[in-house]
Write a structure and sequence with these properties.
alpha/beta; 8 helices; 7-stranded mixed sheet
Length: 190
Amino acid sequence: MKTKNIMIVGVGGQGSLLASKLLGHLLMEQGYDVKVSEVHGMSQRGGSVVTYVRYGEKVYSPVIDQGEADFIVSFEELEAARWLSYLAPGGQIVTNTQQVDPMPVITGAATYPDNLVEKMRAAGAKVDALDCLALAEEAGSTKAVNIVLMGRLSHYFDIPEEAWMASLEACVPARFLEMNKKAFVLGKNA
């Protein structure tokens, strides 16, 4: 099996670490060799962050180069656009439509770009855009955006929902489990 590459991109404090841990656990349980990178970037709240998840028969490195990502999972539109050059031909972007203003926008030195989803599609990318924040709120917490995204990502994998739920049970503290399961299902069924 050819090694598959997933990039998880977003802003510090959004839960990319849990998302990559969940994916790593899920894929290892499916019998794949898995490499998950550490979070790269400014992981404190507000900075741009990226995590790599690679899986296959034998994976030698956790790093994904430009043009190699089969999936880019983005917590925020601008981050999806920022990492677009990493998407492989035929790759898939799964993005939250939420917009988090970066520091240049906050300080007034720049404006947040308009129509990013349309621009990415015009550049040839397949983009699955979803208001994950609204679904996370419906599940019970704005912090569940990451799990809503995982639910949406599950559409692109031939892995039963029960396996995703088992990985959620292994990775999420018990007191947050039901809310996260609801978030996953809302994302999956959106």
